[in-house]
Design brief:
The protein is built from 19 helices and 26 strands. It has 668 residues and is an alpha+beta fold. Strands 8, 10, 11, 12, 13, 15, 16, 17 and 20 form a nine-stranded antiparallel sheet that branches. A six-stranded antiparallel sheet has the order 5-4-3-2-1-9, with no helix packed on it. It has a five-stranded antiparallel sheet with strand order 7-6-14-19-18, with no helix packed on it. A hairpin with a 2-residue loop joins strand 11 and strand 12. Helix 5 crosses helix 6 and helix 12 crosses helix 14. It is globular and about 80 Å long.
C-alpha cells in the first residue's frame, strides 16, 4: 500500500482545491482499509484496528492488555506531536475493550479512569513508551515521528497482525525507512515486532527498542537480551509493568529517560523483538518478581516466533500458498454426501456419509486457516457460503455426546468469527459446553475414551470456544485433558500407544496427539499449571519422531516399526506440529527445520494432479476392538488397514501444515 503524507496547504486555487479534495477522498479510502465504521469485536480475544475517531491512532489488544500508536492526524497538530512510542491500556477483563472505550469516550475521555475494566493510565509523550523503536546516533536517542500508513493482515481472532510504515528519517547521514509488522496472540502479555529497514548507502545504523523511565519508586532489571521495568506504584492505580525481549544478546544502555537495548542493523535486515505490559491490578501478574520471571522465560526457553529460513525457497509448484490453494479448492469441489476416494492400487470408488463427520470438519478448518494466512478473501467467502447451506440442514450437522461429533462445533465458531452471525456462535458454543456437561472423576469430559485420537478433537473445539469468548475455562478444560492423557498414554520414549489395551504407535493416532498439543500450546499462558508438562510431553514426542522419519521424509503407519508402510496423514500432523514448534521457538530450528521441510516436500510429492493426497490410512478403530487382545493379531490389523487417495484424514493435516508455513511469511 502506498504511504500517505499529510501536509498543510494555505494558498490554493479553486481548481487545485477541487483536485486536492478528490485526491484526499481517494487517499482516505485507501488509508482506512475498510475501517471507517468498524464492527464491534466483543467476543474474540484479539482485535486490532485503525481508530480515525481518535486522531488516527492504531490500537490492538488481546485478552490481557491493549496498546496503541499514534497516527498521521496527530502530526498535523504541532502541540500534540509525540512520536512512534507505544501506549499501554491495562485491563482487568478478558474481553475486548477498544471499541467500547472509544465509543462516546473520545479525546480526553473517561477511559483514563478505571471504572472496573482497566484504563489508559500510561503516558507516552515524546518517548519510546513501552517497547517503541528508535535509533542511537551521536550518543543520543532519536525517535521517529508517527506512522504514515497501515495495513491490516489479520484483524481479530486468536491472533492479530498488521503493518505500520514510516516516513524516511536521517540517521548518521543515511536515510532510513522502517516498516513494522506487529503480531499478537491470545494468552500472551507480549506482542512481536518485526522491524524491516531500508538504509541508503553502505554500512549500518544502530537501532534500539526500549522503555521510558519515570521518576519515583520504580524498579529496573535487565539481562543479556531483556529489560523488565515497574513504574512507580500508586494506591489508586497500582503499578504498570513493561518489558522488552530480544531474539539475541544486545547492548544494554540506560539514559536519564530510557532503558534501551541496542543492536546494529543493515539495509534490508529485519530486527525481531517482543514487548509488552501488565498491571498489578490485572488478572495475570501481582508483582515485579512474577513479571520479571515471565520475561526471563520468554527470553530463554520461549524463543521468538519467526519465519525459519528452512521454510522458504520452495521448488516450483511446491510452495505452501500454491498447495494450500489447490487442496482447498479440491475440498470445495467435492460434495458432502458422496465423496470419491481411490483405494491404494485399486479402482476409484465412492464413500457415502450421511452427515458431517470430523474428517470433513478438519479439512474445512484447515482450508479456513489457509485462506486467512494467505489473505485470500474469495476463498474465505466460498468456505463461509458452504457452511451457510449446511446450517439450514440440521440433520446433516448432528448434535451428539461423542468426541467425534463435538469437534464439529469448530466450523460454526470459525465462521462466526468471520460473519458475527450469532446463529453460528450458538451452534458452536452449544457443542463446546455440551462436551463438559458430564465429567469423569479426573475432571475431564466423559467423552474421554483414553484413546490417543481424542486429544485433537477436544483441544480443537475448546480452543475454538476460547478464541470467540476469551474465557480461560475453555483452555483449562483442554489443558487438563491433555495433561491427564499424557500420564496414561505417553511411553518412556516419547511416543504414544493408541490406547492402553492397544499398545501400538499408530501413526495418525499419535499425530492427533501432536496436533492437539500444538493447538493448546499456541494459546495456553505459560503460567498455567499444565503448560510445563504439556510442553515437556510435546518436546519429548518431537525428539522421538526424529528417530523414525523414513528416507522419503514420511513417517510410517506404525511409527516405530520399520517394516510398516509409509503413511501420509500422520506425517502431515507431525509436520504441522514441527513447523509450528520451530516458528514459535519451542523447537531448535537447526534440528527440526530440515526435518519439517523434508516432510512437507514428501507430502507434496504424494499429491495427484487433482490435489488428492495418496496413501492415507482409512478411519481406524483401536486394535483391541477389532482384533481382540492378541498382540500379533493387533499388529496385523494395523498393517492391513486400507490406503485411500483423497481421504479427508489426509487432506486436513496437509492444509494445517500449509497454513503454519504461511503464518508470518511474506508469501501471500
Amino acid at each position: 500500500m502506498k504511504s500517505v503524507t499529510i501536509t498543510n496547504m494555505k494558498h490554493i486555487s479553486k481548481s487545485v482545491l477541487s483536485a486536492f479534495l478528490i485526491l484526499t477522498l481517494l487517499i482516505n479510502h485507501s488509508f482506512a482499509q475498510g475501517d471507517k465504521t468498524p464492527a464491534p469485536a466483543d467476543d474474540g480475544p484479539c482485535y486490532a484496528r485503525f481508530v480515525p475517531e481518535r486522531l488516527d491512532d492504531f490500537a490492538w489488544e488481546n485478552d490481557r492488555v491493549a496498546f496503541r500508536m499514534y497516527g498521521p492526524k496527530m502530526w498535523t497538530m504541532p502541540e500534540k506531536r509525540c512520536g512512534s512510542g507505544i501506549d499501554v491500556w491495562v485491563k482487568k477483563v478478558r474481553y475486548p475493550i477498544i471499541n467500547k472505550w472509544m465509543k462516546d469516550k473520545r479525546i480526553g475521555g473517561k477511559y483514563h479512569t478505571d471504572t472496573g475494566e482497566g484504563a489508559d493510565l500510561y503516558s507516552v509523550g515524546k518517548t519510546l513508551g513501552c517497547g517503541g523503536l528508535g535509533f542511537w546516533a551521536d550518543g543520543k536517542l532519536k525517535i521517529n515521528r508517527h506512522y504514515e500508513s497501515y495495513k491490516v493482515i489479520q484483524r481479530e481472532g486468536d491472533r492479530i497482525e498488521f503493518e505500520l510504515s514510516y516516513a524516511p528519517l536521517e540517521i548518521d547521514g543515511k536515510t532510513v525507512t522502517e516498516t513494522k509488522r506487529i503480531s499478537m496472540e491470545a494468552g500472551s502479555s507480549l506482542f512481536t515486532v518485526r522491524n524491516t529497514f531500508k538504509i541508503s548507502g553502505d554500512g549500518s545504523v544502530t537501532a534500539t527498542a526500549g522503555i521510558v523511565l519515570r521518576k519515583g519508586d520504580d524498579k529496573l532489571r535487565h539481562g543479556k537480551n531483556w529489560i523488565s521495568y515497574a513504574e512507580p506504584v500508586t494506591a489508586k492505580d497500582g503499578q504498570t509493568y513493561c518489558g522488552v525481549v530480544f531474539e539475541e544478546d544486545a547492548e544494554f544502555k540506560q539514559t536519564d529517560t530510557h532503558a534501551l537495548m541496542l543492536v546494529s542493523v543493515k539495509d534490508g535486515e529485519t530486527l525481531t523483538y517482543r514487548a509488552g505490559a501488565a498491571w498489578s491490578k490485572g488478572l495475570d501478574f501481582k508483582n515485579m518478581n512474577e513479571w520479571t520471571a515471565y520475561l526471563e522465560k520468554a527470553a530463554g526457553a520461549e524463543s521468538l516466533a519467526r519465519n525459519s529460513g528452512y521454510f522458504d525457497g520452495w521448488p516450483a509448484g511446491k510452495s505452501p500458498a500454491e498447495i494450500g490453494k489447490a487442496v482447498s479448492e479440491n475440498f470445495l469441489k467435492r460434495g458432502h454426501y458422496e465423496t470419491m476416494v481411490k483405494r491404494h492400487n485399486q479402482e476409484a470408488k465412492h464413500q457415502t456419509w450421511r452427515e458431517v463427520v470430523y474428517p470433513e470438519v478438519c479439512v474445512w478448518f484447515g482450508a479456513l486457516k489457509v485462506a486467512r494466512e494467505s489473505g485470500d478473501n474469495e476463498l474465505t467467502q466460498q468456505l463461509v457460503d458452504r457452511f451457510d447451506s449446511y446450517a439450514k440442514k440440521p440433520k446433516i450437522f448432528p448434535f451428539k455426546f461423542h468426541v467425534d461429533h463435538s469437534v464439529n462445533g469448530v466450523i460454526p465458531l470459525e465462521v462466526y468469527r468471520l460473519t458475527r452471525n450469532n446463529l453460528y456462535l450458538n451452534m458452536g458454543m452449544k457443542r463446546a459446553d455440551h462436551q463438559w456437561s458430564k465429567t469423569t472423576p479426573d475432571g475431564i469430559t466423559a467423552q474421554a475414551r483414553y484413546w490417543v485420537d481424542d486429544i485433537y478433537m477436544i483441544a480443537a473445539i475448546q480452543t475454538a470456544a476460547f478464541r470467540v469468548t476469551g474465557d480461560q475455562k475453555y483452555l483449562d478444560r483442554a489443558a487438563l485433558t491433555i495433561a491427564t492423557y499424557l500420564k496414561k498414554l505417553q511411553k518412556e520414549d516419547g511416543l504414544f500407544w493408541h490406547a492402553d489395551d492397544s499398545p501400538f504407535v499408530w501413526g495418525r493416532g499419535t499425530g492427533w496427539y501432536a496436533a492437539g498439543m500444538t493447538e493448546i500450546l499456541k494459546v495456553l499462558p505459560p503460567e498455567n499449571p499444565h503448560y510445563a508438562p504439556i510442553l515437556a510431553g510435546y518436546k519429548k514426542m518431537m525428539a522421538a519422531l526424529l528417530l523414525h522419519q523414513s528416507e522419503s521424509g514420511l513417517w510410517r503407519q506404525l511409527v516405530d516399526k520399520p517394516d510398516s508402510w509409509e503413511e501420509t496423514s500422520g506425517t502431515g500432523m507431525f509436520a504441522y506440529a514441527m513447523v509450528t514448534g520451530v516458528k514459535r521457538g519451542w523447537l531448535d530450528e537447526e534440528t527440526y527445520g530440515p526435518v519439517a521441510r523434508k516432510a512437507w516436500l514428501a507430502l507434496v510429492d504424494q499429491l495427484d494432479e487433482e490435489g488428492n493426497v495418496k496413501n492415507v490410512c482409512v478411519g481406524t478403530n483401536k486394535a483391541f476392538k477389532e482384533a481382540g487382545s492378541d498382540l500379533d493379531a493387533q499388529y496385523a490389523f494395523y498393517l492391513a488397514r486400507p490406503r485411500y487417495t483423497g481421504d479427508y484424514h489426509g487432506q486436513a493435516p496437509l492444509l494445517w501444515t500449509a497454513a503454519a508455513l504461511l503464518e508470518g511469511s511474506q508469501e501471500k
